[in-house]
């Protein structure tokens, strides 16, 4: 059956933009076009953030399934935009995500509330699905230290400099000195431990749930006083002078926040310091993004500040809070550029749908940070308060 042709209403067109006025679109496309118009996005427009719709059925998918439909239809090649990051930035900034939510949203909320998605049995899932994709893959995308967390771009012009600045900032905030022992909860490939051992002369113990990370990190840190342990954070119970956790707290989950901080407290000496580096939400949510949960970080759960504050009560004093979430936009865009440049090496292994999935992950997250919908916090904690107060290093 031949498709019907419908004109998009004048109110759905963007000023200064030429769009195809007659296309094989039905009412769903008109509805989606009207919604996107609220974010100054056109279907068929010529600006970098305008949506090129290749299949009209994608409109139904997006309207019905929200974030999940938008991401999956992009993975399937149903729509494109020259700058997906800017398209997502405008969608998030206009709060369109609140206007279109799937009937499955209720189930997603209930599942997060009623189920401990980050139980010891389930905690290893993210390692298997995400971090074990291939060390060579992440090596191509990341900086020489293999830091898979937000860089610090205050005085940096490239990814490697931004990541070294972040690692040095962490070490200075912790006041690391030769002879200290540092626990890194969620150590990844050992970027912080390698840096701290080389530059600050400390001994390091790192915890990871990814076998691939542990094996690769041991090779990279050979000859340094660095130990990788393949274990869940709940299992550690020994004293350390300092504790750091960069980019792992997002996997802890609301049901385990108190346990997480209790473990950190029992492992930190009374005169120690704990630096928590985490992505956070502006407000407490009852769910994670369903597309990210399914395809990128299974069982992830971004905290709000009040959840952190409540979880540390009677365990830690919050000494300092540093938000440089806007720097994650530049970090993600740098990762994306490196990923695209390296893709010909991995195309045969992963395939085109994976490329679109991974590209969408990096670009959509960049757009969300650009919209300031997500934050990056470094929170300094002490067991009983630093005498005379904690001073953030310049």
TrEMBL record:
<keyword id="KW-0808">Transferase</keyword>
<keyword id="KW-0949">S-adenosyl-L-methionine</keyword>
<dbReference type="Pfam" id="PF02353">
    <property type="entry name" value="CMAS"/>
</dbReference>
<comment type="similarity">
    <text>Belongs to the CFA/CMAS family.</text>
</comment>
<dbReference type="InterPro" id="IPR029063">
    <property type="entry name" value="SAM-dependent_MTases_sf"/>
</dbReference>
<protein>
    <submittedName>
        <fullName>Cyclopropane fatty acyl phospholipid synthase</fullName>
        <ecNumber>2.1.1.79</ecNumber>
    </submittedName>
</protein>
<dbReference type="GO" id="GO:0008825">
    <property type="term" value="F:cyclopropane-fatty-acyl-phospholipid synthase activity"/>
</dbReference>
<dbReference type="InterPro" id="IPR003333">
    <property type="entry name" value="CMAS"/>
</dbReference>
<keyword id="KW-0489">Methyltransferase</keyword>
<dbReference type="InterPro" id="IPR050723">
    <property type="entry name" value="CFA/CMAS"/>
</dbReference>
<dbReference type="GO" id="GO:0032259">
    <property type="term" value="P:methylation"/>
</dbReference>
<keyword id="KW-0443">Lipid metabolism</keyword>
């Amino acid at each position: 059956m031949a498709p019907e042709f419908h004109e998009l209403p004048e109110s759905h067109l963007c000023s200064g933009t030429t769009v195809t006025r007659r296309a094989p679109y039905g009412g769903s496309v008109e509805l989606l076009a009207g919604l996107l118009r609220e974010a100054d996005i056109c279907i068929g427009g010529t600006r970098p953030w305008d949506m090129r719709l290749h299949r009209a059925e994608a409109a139904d998918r997006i309207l019905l399934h929200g974030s999940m439909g938008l991401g999956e239809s992009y993975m399937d090649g149903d729509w494109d935009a020259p700058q997906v990051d800017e398209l997502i930035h405008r969608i998030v900034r206009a709060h369109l995500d609140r206007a279109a939510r799937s009937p499955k949203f209720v189930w997603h909320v209930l599942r997060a509330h009623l189920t401990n998605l980050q139980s010891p049995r389930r905690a290893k899932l993210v390692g298997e699905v995400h971090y074990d994709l291939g060390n060579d893959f992440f090596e191509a995308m990341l900086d020489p230290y293999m830091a898979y967390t937000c860089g610090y771009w205050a005085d940096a012009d490239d990814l490697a400099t931004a990541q070294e600045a972040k690692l040095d900032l962490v070490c200075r905030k912790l006041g690391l000195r030769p002879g200290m022992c540092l626990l890194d909860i969620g150590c990844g490939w050992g970027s912080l431990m390698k840096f701290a051992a080389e530059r600050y002369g400390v001994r390091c113990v790192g915890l990871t749930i990814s076998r691939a990370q542990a094996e690769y990190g041991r090779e990279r840190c050979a000859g340094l006083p660095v130990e990788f342990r393949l274990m869940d954070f709940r299992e550690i119970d020994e004293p350390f002078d300092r504790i750091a956790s960069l980019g792992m707290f997002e996997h802890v989950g609301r049901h385990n926040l108190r346990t997480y901080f209790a473990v950190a407290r029992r492992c930190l000496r009374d005169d120690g310091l704990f630096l928590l580096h985490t992505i956070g939400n502006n407000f407490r949510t009852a769910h994670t993004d369903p597309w990210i949960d399914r395809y990128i970080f299974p069982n992830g759960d971004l905290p709000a500040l009040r959840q952190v504050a409540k979880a540390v009560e009677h365990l830690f004093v919050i000494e300092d809070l540093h938000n440089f979430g806007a720097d994650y936009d530049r970090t993600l865009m740098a990762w994306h550029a490196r990923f695209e440049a390296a893709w010909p090496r991995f195309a045969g292994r992963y395939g085109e749908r994976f490329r679109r999935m991974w590209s969408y992950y990096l670009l959509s997250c960049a757009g969300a940070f650009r919209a300031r919908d997500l934050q990056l916090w470094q929170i300094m904690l002490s067991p009983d308060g630093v005498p005379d107060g904690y001073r953030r290093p310049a």
